[in-house]
Amino acid sequence: MDIQTVETGPINGQKPGTSGLRKKTKVFMGPHFLENYVQSIFDGIGGVSGKTLIVGGDGRYFNERAIQVILRMMAANGASRAIVGQNGLLSTPAASNLIRKRGTDGGLILSASHNPGGPDEDFGLKYNGPNGGPASEGVTDKIFARTTDITSYKIVEGEDVDIASTGDKTLGDMVVEVIDPVADYAALMENLFDFDAIKGLLSSGFTISFDAMHAVTGPYAKAILEHRLGAAEGSVVNATPSPDFGGGHPDPNPIWAKELMDRMHGPDAPDFGAASDGDGDRNMIVGKGCYVTPSDSLAVLAANATLAPAYRDGLKGIARSMPTSAAVDRVAEKLGIDCYETPTGWKFFGNLLDAGRATICGEESAGTGSDHVREKDGLWAVLLWLNILAQKRQPVAQLIADHWTQFGRNYYSRHDYEAVESDLANRLMDDMRTKMSDLPGTEVAGLKVEAADEFSYNDPVDGSVSKNQGLRFYFEGGGRVVFRLSGTGTEGATIRVYIERLELDPSAMQQDAQEALAPIIKAAETLSRIRAETGRSGPDVVT
Ligand code: G6P
Ligand code: ZN
């Protein structure tokens, strides 16, 4: 084995964000960029000598080339085994499952999630630990520290490993085990849910449409929904993963999954629609003519989870990220279980899941999941919905309306201002931070401010503290607005504004969300001056 030690020096900008390191693909492809980061991961986790790692990605441009580099660096650093998805494919939840099932030392997931792919778009890489979840801040801090003082990396020279066919291969002294990316994941899903009940639903004339958005869930959804559960051929659309996701944004929201939204609001709408993102961890749920917000979806899943075999004995607790609506809190209250509020980022759920304090978790950013893996899981959410509908035999819109009547409706919307100049975005946040302590008791655009603070999280399991996690303003009457800067963008800053209001009057629960939230949206602008200072007339994305 020809191990080379290549001299290098620190490269700026290798600080992992909300979910690993994301950059323009060309940046990742630049000299030593990928190699420096991979070596920093290895060093940051105490080396990979004798270790086994899962390796796979969402199939975007540069996925396979990057995997070949990673494998050669693993071999050079003394790893004993790499378990790789065939053709380099693994959805994020499938990778998380494999880490846990095979008891490995973690895994490397190549994805920029819902960001577009291609030579001029985005690429990403993250390390997940032995519990299957994204590395904790403690670990990513070590990885980042290494990127700032790295002097060399190790790599083996040689031929590419054949990852197009399954089976054991060798690379120097390391075994490269190429596996079917779908099989273990499909078996896990079959364990959690009542597949017979879902089959019964799908054979009763209930129709579905799942949009894989040209991304990694295509093969998973085909195998599970069509082949195992009997959904009609063609129920899964855009099912072949492509390096640039068909030129689109593989982001399951009403804007980027417009094709599905149009179908669900058209004359031949199926009974149930869903979509997933680039790496398969996000989901969007749509009923016939009825979009379900991620926050409402989380609340409905939590309220009805016991209808699925895996959750029959009840939930230990629920967790949501702070900007997610409080709809699920009301469910937790009713069930008499704890509800945790964490910062944005799935990694913050890991400790709660490991400690058995939470069973189901979710985020407003279209992520829902449970303790079956340590990532959010798009197809899991779809299957839990189908399992619930198989028992309830109700249209989605009716299920949602009943839920609101029982628990109240948390009107909710997120407004994103994308690619704002970073200095300006930081200044706008600083301005609000400075004035927030004087606001309680005063009126903003006619709304009385009850409280205002900057969210800081004390992890109840390991005692760690995460500061500066979003600016929160609470108004009289149950309204709330939260401001934070996205940690997943690759260009400039994205300002996210999360707006919410609780409605308990059953006769006022069918309004348009933007109208129902209009007074708070106005107060948000008065507080932040985003539109005035950026010269924009409104947000780029509204969810
Ligand atoms: C990724 C993470 C999520 C997070 C989302 C939004 O998908 O896995 O946990 O909610 O990004 O993050 P952002 O920092 O862009 O709001
Ligand atoms: Zn994702």
UniProtKB/TrEMBL annotation:
<dbReference type="GO" id="GO:0000287">
    <property type="term" value="F:magnesium ion binding"/>
</dbReference>
<feature type="domain" description="Alpha-D-phosphohexomutase alpha/beta/alpha">
    <location>
        <begin position="14"/>
        <end position="153"/>
    </location>
</feature>
<dbReference type="InterPro" id="IPR016066">
    <property type="entry name" value="A-D-PHexomutase_CS"/>
</dbReference>
<dbReference type="InterPro" id="IPR036900">
    <property type="entry name" value="A-D-PHexomutase_C_sf"/>
</dbReference>
<feature type="domain" description="Alpha-D-phosphohexomutase alpha/beta/alpha">
    <location>
        <begin position="184"/>
        <end position="286"/>
    </location>
</feature>
<dbReference type="InterPro" id="IPR016055">
    <property type="entry name" value="A-D-PHexomutase_a/b/a-I/II/III"/>
</dbReference>
<dbReference type="GO" id="GO:0005829">
    <property type="term" value="C:cytosol"/>
</dbReference>
<dbReference type="GO" id="GO:0004614">
    <property type="term" value="F:phosphoglucomutase activity"/>
</dbReference>
<dbReference type="InterPro" id="IPR005846">
    <property type="entry name" value="A-D-PHexomutase_a/b/a-III"/>
</dbReference>
<keyword id="KW-0460">Magnesium</keyword>
<dbReference type="InterPro" id="IPR005845">
    <property type="entry name" value="A-D-PHexomutase_a/b/a-II"/>
</dbReference>
<dbReference type="Pfam" id="PF02880">
    <property type="entry name" value="PGM_PMM_III"/>
</dbReference>
<feature type="region of interest" description="Disordered">
    <location>
        <begin position="1"/>
        <end position="22"/>
    </location>
</feature>
<dbReference type="InterPro" id="IPR045244">
    <property type="entry name" value="PGM"/>
</dbReference>
<dbReference type="GO" id="GO:0005975">
    <property type="term" value="P:carbohydrate metabolic process"/>
</dbReference>
<dbReference type="Pfam" id="PF02879">
    <property type="entry name" value="PGM_PMM_II"/>
</dbReference>
<dbReference type="Pfam" id="PF24947">
    <property type="entry name" value="PGM1_C_vert_fung"/>
</dbReference>
<keyword id="KW-0597">Phosphoprotein</keyword>
<dbReference type="InterPro" id="IPR005841">
    <property type="entry name" value="Alpha-D-phosphohexomutase_SF"/>
</dbReference>
<keyword id="KW-0413">Isomerase</keyword>
<feature type="domain" description="Alpha-D-phosphohexomutase alpha/beta/alpha">
    <location>
        <begin position="295"/>
        <end position="407"/>
    </location>
</feature>
<comment type="similarity">
    <text>Belongs to the phosphohexose mutase family.</text>
</comment>
<dbReference type="InterPro" id="IPR005844">
    <property type="entry name" value="A-D-PHexomutase_a/b/a-I"/>
</dbReference>
<keyword id="KW-0479">Metal-binding</keyword>
<dbReference type="Pfam" id="PF02878">
    <property type="entry name" value="PGM_PMM_I"/>
</dbReference>
<protein>
    <recommendedName>
        <fullName>phosphoglucomutase (alpha-D-glucose-1,6-bisphosphate-dependent)</fullName>
        <ecNumber>5.4.2.2</ecNumber>
    </recommendedName>
</protein>
